[in-house]
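Researcher: Good morning. I'm working through a list of sequences from a screen, and I'd like to move beyond sequence-only analysis. For each chain I'm collecting a predicted structure so we can compare shapes side by side. This is the next one on the list. No need for commentary yet; just the structure.
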Amino acid sequence: MRQNHYLSPTLRDVPSDAEVSSHQLMLRAGLIRQTASGVYSFLPLGMRALKKVENIVREEMDAAGAQELLMPAVQPAELWQESGRWDAYGPELMRFFDRHKREFALGPTHEEVITTLVRDDVKSYKRLPMTLYQIQTKFRDERRPRFGVLRSREFIMKDAYSFDTTQEGLDKSYESMFEAYTNIFKRCGLDFRAVVADSGAMGGKDTHEFMVLSSIGEDTIAYSDTSSYAANIEIAPVISKYENSDEKESSLEKFDTPQLKTIDELQSSLNIGKNKLIKAVLFIVDEKPVLALVRGDHEVNDVKIKHFYNAQVVELASTEETIKYMNCEPGFIGPINDSQEVEIVADKAVQYIVNGVCGANEKDKHFKNVNPLRDFSVKEYMDVRFIQEGDASPDGKGTIKFAEGIEVGHVFKLGTRYSEAMGAVFLDENGKTKPMIMGCYGIGVTRVLAATIEQHHDEKGIVWPTSVAPFDLHLIAINMKNEEQKQLSEDLYNQLKQSGFDVLFDDRAERPGVKFTDSDLIGLPIRVTVGKKAADGIVEVKNRKTDEVLEVSTNELISVLHELNDRLA
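Model: Good morning. Structure tokens for this chain:
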């Protein structure tokens, strides 16, 4: 491809609204342009890289026996109502009416559509198992789009769905997809971890996220320092043991704490450890108030509350709701309360607190010498906090450390969550009707591209892995007005293409510094420069990753490039 007429507009300055490296570089290298908040156009360079990722995904999915199809982005509301997700999915679902006042949604995912397709056309166990997938645009109305295509409102996703007759069959399909995902992310050159995760609005229980390790990741991975255990911090269980204290219980006492609303303020003012403080957080769980208690040095995990109650929606109570149920504004609420409406759950660590401090449900007041087993009742003591660094690993091996990660893939065992709700059944070998057992497997294709750039860049620009680079190499003619350089460049361009290389040919009438800066910014794996030694048949070959530069005779160029390409693969 000749660069002179190629739409690859590079930028010298870092865009002010681009916070992370991948977003900055995708804009500066001319891969994308923003059309609206969270909505991007992919320019030719970006599109070529995106297609490289898609091809890797497609090859591995096909190798795993999955069948490709394409479903509509526009989905009727009735399907979502049938599955029970129309109201539960939340404001991220983009909804609209057509001219006949029929309600639709732009698909953020396709469980409902695929379930109806298979339900209507697959009736016998003889047709199963079956795994179907698509690569398609998805839509989610993100509250705060950020980080470019890492969190956008429109994005490319690969979603696959498996249908089995038995749990053992689902386990096998899940394992097959897990292996395919591992192959995909390795081929994309990513440093990643598969971690135990929460299924969220998708439903199902067994699930793993594939996380690309990155300091800008929005998810925290809890992993063992001595074993292979890894989980999203939202789902990692706490197995820490707590010891009874020898301290004698003192009498409960209410005292003044003017303007002391936070744990840090209480700790500083009272000069006590956070482990003596009881933090109370009010949630609305499927429209019912639940007060969750943890120690002051711990944080409440709302995902664990959601799982405990098997709830659809768990939200922090508003100030108005807090006043309604606790008769007090946030900052002074606590478990010593006569209200029968509010149910209390507490972390296991709370019951070991002796002579602690908690809110008194009265402005500027707290209780001291609080002893949980004596002073208030709890529905259940359970694991309701986030795991912390230094806690024992849930697998009993080593201690927990944290790393940040970008989620690029997610695999779920859905079970019969959708097939039962939507009547996707089959006749078994005995003629009995049974629900299909489903799995769901997603990859954020545009996220993979951005995550790759996050892990593969330097101060000059992108450093593409060969597997997803838009072109194999960058051919640069230093001076297209020099007849020898121009002729050699044209000859090499044709020879390289005939030898199977995908070439971006910089034939622009620009200064050498501009061409080299753009080349480093775009970051193709290999650069071939035709310059002053063109008359002698000598060119420069540069390895973008290592900055190694070789002078190579044009007679040996093709073999040198093949050897270098093999080393970089």
